[in-house]
Write a structure and sequence with these properties.
The chain has ten helices and 15 strands. Strands 1-2-3-4 form a four-stranded antiparallel beta sheet. A four-stranded antiparallel beta sheet has the order 5-6-7-8, with helices on one face. A three-stranded antiparallel beta sheet has the order 9-10-11, with helices on one face. The chain is of the alpha+beta class and 356 residues long. 34% of the residues lie in helices and 20% in strands. GO terms for molecular function: ubiquitin protein ligase activity. InterPro entries: Fancl, FANCL_C, FANCL_d2, FANCL_d3, FANCL_d3_sf, FancL_WD-rpt_cont_dom, UBQ-conjugating_enzyme/RWD, Znf_RING/FYVE/PHD.
């Protein structure tokens, strides 16, 4: 196989494995698009800094969902970048890592595996622990009693689920614990061997996020939140409907929810401050018609597509038709394939459409 044939083979394989990813420059030092993980399409862009071919210097940019998945795992990603010889290898590793993180972010109640039998003290210890913390804190469990969730209330009366996976060597081994918090718990702190430790630790952790949750609850109550559709306690981003096909996306800092860069907003809530700045009153689901907000995509004819909302619109003032970014990508690639548009022209089209 000569160099030209190999380059063609490489391009075809990349297109087959990652059909929604394309190079955004002629030197292929930057890629952008979507990576599909467990049926979810996550938008991201990766760039090599200073025209260096070394992936160690690469910068990764992504959607809020992608940022949430990789938060706390930056070191592992950096190690993969240093170990991979090219983009193709890193794309495969990134997809595997995201699948792993996405799987862990799902409630542990859904995970069932065929494992060895538990130790002789497993069930007796578990019963004693539940007696100690109170059975009212047990929210749910699976038939094997290997996975369970505890229900905790914070000082504001919010209910939180703490998912616990017990190894069959329990109580000798550490528990695997997961909760929907704005900032993940480091593995060093998340080393607990009893349910009493879990309740004590997470009861204190929940109090750290009272301010940011109060701000987010105020937004959820008084505005029409487009995304996330069903916000989790770990979600710090909100996309708020403004009316007339416009929306505002904000993301709070968990440690300083009223702060923005060097500025700090006092007394008023985040919602009230934005209303004052924009000189509007945010519409809510009770004060605005659904047809004013839910404008379907001009390609797939649906409003919500694979978890995302239309985020691109036609620049023609007489049109203004919204589209999903992923639908535009797919449609353009179909047209490119039908009319045999080469990569250079395709990149030009994408740039003209502000999709690169």
């Amino acid at each position: 196989m000569n160099i030209k044939d190999y380059a063609l083979y490489k391009t075809v394989m990349e297109a087959k494995n990652f059909p929604l990813l394309i190079p955004s420059d002629m030197d292929e030092l930057s890629y952008c698009g979507f990576i599909t993980v467990k049926g979810q399409e996550l938008a991201f862009q990766i760039k090599l800094e200073n025209n260096s071919a070394c992936l160690k210097n690469a910068k990764l940019y992504g959607s809020p969902e992608l940022k949430r998945l990789i938060f706390g795992h930056e070191r592992a990603l950096q190690q993969r970048l240093e170990q991979c010889a090219n983009f193709s290898e890193f794309f495969v590793d990134l997809k595997d890592l995201l699948a792993e993180y996405l799987g862990f972010s799902e409630p542990l109640m859904t995970k069932e595996k065929t494992d060895p039998s538990p130790g002789e003290n497993y069930y007796s210890t578990l019963i004693n622990e539940l007696n100690s913390i109170g059975w009212d804190k047990l929210e749910a469990f699976n038939p094997s009693l290997k996975n369970l969730s505890l229900k905790l209330s914070d000082s504001s009366g919010r209910q939180h689920s703490i998912f616990v996976s017990l190894p069959f060597s329990y109580p000798k081994a550490s528990l695997i614990v997961h909760a929907e918090l704005p900032t993940p718990i480091s593995m060093a702190l998340n080393h607990m061997t009893s349910l009493k430790d879990v309740v004590s630790f997470y009861s204190k952790e929940l109090e750290k996020f009272q301010d940011v949750w109060s701000m987010l609850d105020d937004i959820d109550k008084h505005t029409w939140v487009l995304e996330p559709c069903k916000p989790k306690r770990s979600d710090l981003m909100r996309r708020i409907a403004l009316g007339n096909h416009c929306s505002l996306q904000i993301e709070l800092d968990a440690s300083c929810p009223k702060g923005e860069c060097q500025y700090r907003l006092f007394d008023l809530t985040i919602r009230k401050n934005f209303e004052n700045i924009l000189e509007i009153t945010f519409p809510s689901a009770q004060t605005i018609s659904t047809s004013d907000i839910n404008i379907e995509c001009g390609i797939c004819y649906s409003y919500r597509h694979e978890g995302s909302l239309p985020d691109q619109s036609c620049n023609n003032a007489k049109c203004g038709q919204p589209f999903h970014r992923s639908c535009l990508y797919e449609q353009i690639f179909i047209v490119a394939a039908v009319y045999s548009i080469n990569k250079t022209k395709l990149q030009y089209i994408l740039r003209e459409l502000s999709l690169l």
